[in-house]
Amino acid sequence: MKEKNEEKMTIDDLAKQMTSGFAETKKTTNDLTKSIDDLAIMVAGGFDNVQKKLNSHDRRFDAVDQRFDRIENEIKLARAEISHGLREIKDEIKRLDERVDGVMKTANQNINELVEKVAVCESNLSKLKQKIAKLKMANS
Prior knowledge:
Layout: H1 11-139
Protein name: t-SNARE coiled-coil homology domain-containing protein
Organism: Candidatus Berkelbacteria bacterium CG1_02_42_45
Keywords: Coiled coil
């Protein structure tokens, strides 16, 4: 049983109520769209900041890479210079060894000649001593 105090809703009232509900839904949808747009703007800003930081890091890494490349080239150059210097030193040592060998050969020949001359001198000295001894005996 229906209450008598209950108001009857007319089509106009229902249309007004639905229009109000649609307006509220549209407002909520607009608020949601605005919130999504705001979130998208914040996310885009965050991505932009991240991209800027990544670009900054990339520039720093590029600078470090350039320093490494420069240092690597300097090391290669130093290594080449050292290798060249070592080859020159080895060549000089080889030349000095050859010269020392030549000097030693000449010195050995000279020493052998001197040994022979000393032996001849000692022999002559011995003969002279014998002649002196004979002369002393003959004069006595």
